[in-house]
Amino acid sequence: MDVTRATHYLLVDDHSLIREGMTQAIRGLDPAARFSHANSLQATLAKLQETADTDPIDVVLLDLGLPDSRGMATLQAVRGAAPTQRIGIISGQNDVQVALECIHHGASCFIPKLAEIDGFMSALRALVEGRLHFPSELLSPSEVDWPAVDDAAAPRTIRLTPRQKDVLQWILKGCTNHAIATALGISAETVKLHVSAIFRAYGVHSRTQLVLLCSRSPASQPNAGASAPSAPVKSATVIRLVSEATRESTT
Prior knowledge:
alpha/beta; five-stranded parallel β-sheet; globular; 11 helices
């Protein structure tokens, strides 16, 4: 992503109030952000194509339930059209299996629509800052078959080459080996070798395990860093964000 250019978000939901609520929430975290909206899969794919050469989308925030597409097929279609963009999922379901499938198909954030505001804003903040975010219950060892990890030791024991760090950043964006190869100007076979080395370094056996491990241990993420916490928002759900955005737009 070009750091000199304001981040361009594509907000995809068939409810205009949800899109407006998202716009206001993200603008509070990223005042320079620019936005495009879509209310269907067809409109999403058209917008990605329309902006590709002149003003490319950086981040897609996607509802899986659209009038013309539902479920993982929606994410797969968008990932195919946006191979290197970060994709966050906003879902009416707080379902562990759905979230795991989203990881498998290239999402870097999973945000339940009806989450408490604090959790919802934390998820959006991670998306804006380029970090991973998945529901806390998804990060429990009881939900995922992954090796036990000493979080405190992880930053000291994981050793990656500069190129492996580059590959890891693209993996955590949900990119395929082919997309990573194209982005880095190397062969897909070379990417595959780097991915295998990264798995060994982290002690995991799949991309899903790697993404969840980095979600569980933020210090393991390649661009980890402290950010100033914002004041917490109390006792409401995403519906409150929508309501507040609606009031602002009518005053």
